[in-house]
Amino acid sequence: MNRRILTLLAALLPVVVFGVLLAAVTVPFVSLGPGPTFDTLGMVEGKQVVDIQGTTTHPTTGHLNMTTVSQRDGLTLGEALALWLSGREQLMPRDLVYPPGKSREEVDEDNDAEFRASEQSAEYAALGYLRYPSAVTLADVHDPGPSAGKLQPGDAVDAVNGEPVYTVERFTAKLAGTKPGETVAIDYRRKNAAPGTARITLGENKDRPNGFLGVSVLDAPWAPFTVEFNLANIGGPSAGLMFSLAVIDKLSTGGLAGENFVAGTGVIKANGQVDSIGGITHKMIAAKEAGATVFLVPAENCYEARSDNNGLQLIKVDSLAQAVDALRTLTGGGQPPSC
């Protein structure tokens, strides 16, 4: 082998090694970027994203899009560099997304649980805004448990042994004097069904001497119809605000969005409070690329959102009521609060 070929091979070796490193070596980073958006007033896979059954709903106009952040794990060095150079993606240390001691599956399960909880909070916040009365509401029915097959999550408890219970405090007080093996009569209302009475033999509670009904309850606005959210594989709680707005829009006349393409984000509490979220800039990019012109921003995220608004009109919100008022001001030609 002559000297010229040896020199060429020596020069190419670092390039080959670097190429192998780019393709084969994984890095301890996760990429975050703009994710898909979904119109909460629209359809997905043949189903309404927000499906209300058992009452009259009203036509809606425009868009109320929820936004998401995409996430990529298991990146090679080459993929990480390419995503970083694109300017659209943010690289985060993997430990910040998947904490040590938790598997990816466990983190995904936690995110899914947060999403499901946000759906419930969104429904309660919307019903509260619409002035539906509060009731002792079953958040969960333990299965196995004494009430399984007799009561259902979402039932409203009206009375225990014929005595009205208007709050969780009174409900708890009524059960405090019971004993395991005792049978109690629970008068309840069920969505899209006739009221009923369940006779339940109480079980044992290892933490207390009184009987165990096997339910979790909360004071929450209650309506006789069902609200279902038909999105899957979306984690985290940040869709709550847009879900609540969709429920209100469908149960009200006039159309909240008008002809506007509105997108947004925000954690919703059952009392209507809107809390901050992560990844606001990625969500704004996704909204803009989907066609949005207006973006609802949790008040605590305004500083970050202002750094690059991507040509979007940014509306500042700190509560569900403020978000509704802002949209009505917008559709009426006024100037809503801005970041």
From TrEMBL:
<dbReference type="GO" id="GO:0030163">
    <property type="term" value="P:protein catabolic process"/>
</dbReference>
<dbReference type="GO" id="GO:0006508">
    <property type="term" value="P:proteolysis"/>
</dbReference>
<feature type="active site">
    <location>
        <position position="283"/>
    </location>
</feature>
<dbReference type="InterPro" id="IPR001478">
    <property type="entry name" value="PDZ"/>
</dbReference>
<feature type="domain" description="Lon proteolytic">
    <location>
        <begin position="233"/>
        <end position="330"/>
    </location>
</feature>
<dbReference type="InterPro" id="IPR014721">
    <property type="entry name" value="Ribsml_uS5_D2-typ_fold_subgr"/>
</dbReference>
<dbReference type="GO" id="GO:0004176">
    <property type="term" value="F:ATP-dependent peptidase activity"/>
</dbReference>
<dbReference type="InterPro" id="IPR008269">
    <property type="entry name" value="Lon_proteolytic"/>
</dbReference>
<dbReference type="InterPro" id="IPR027065">
    <property type="entry name" value="Lon_Prtase"/>
</dbReference>
<feature type="active site">
    <location>
        <position position="238"/>
    </location>
</feature>
<dbReference type="InterPro" id="IPR036034">
    <property type="entry name" value="PDZ_sf"/>
</dbReference>
<feature type="domain" description="PDZ">
    <location>
        <begin position="112"/>
        <end position="192"/>
    </location>
</feature>
<dbReference type="GO" id="GO:0005524">
    <property type="term" value="F:ATP binding"/>
</dbReference>
<keyword id="KW-0720">Serine protease</keyword>
<dbReference type="GO" id="GO:0004252">
    <property type="term" value="F:serine-type endopeptidase activity"/>
</dbReference>
<dbReference type="InterPro" id="IPR020568">
    <property type="entry name" value="Ribosomal_Su5_D2-typ_SF"/>
</dbReference>
<protein>
    <recommendedName>
        <fullName>endopeptidase La</fullName>
        <ecNumber>3.4.21.53</ecNumber>
    </recommendedName>
</protein>
<keyword id="KW-0645">Protease</keyword>
<dbReference type="Pfam" id="PF05362">
    <property type="entry name" value="Lon_C"/>
</dbReference>
<dbReference type="Pfam" id="PF13180">
    <property type="entry name" value="PDZ_2"/>
</dbReference>
<comment type="similarity">
    <text>Belongs to the peptidase S16 family.</text>
</comment>
<keyword id="KW-0378">Hydrolase</keyword>
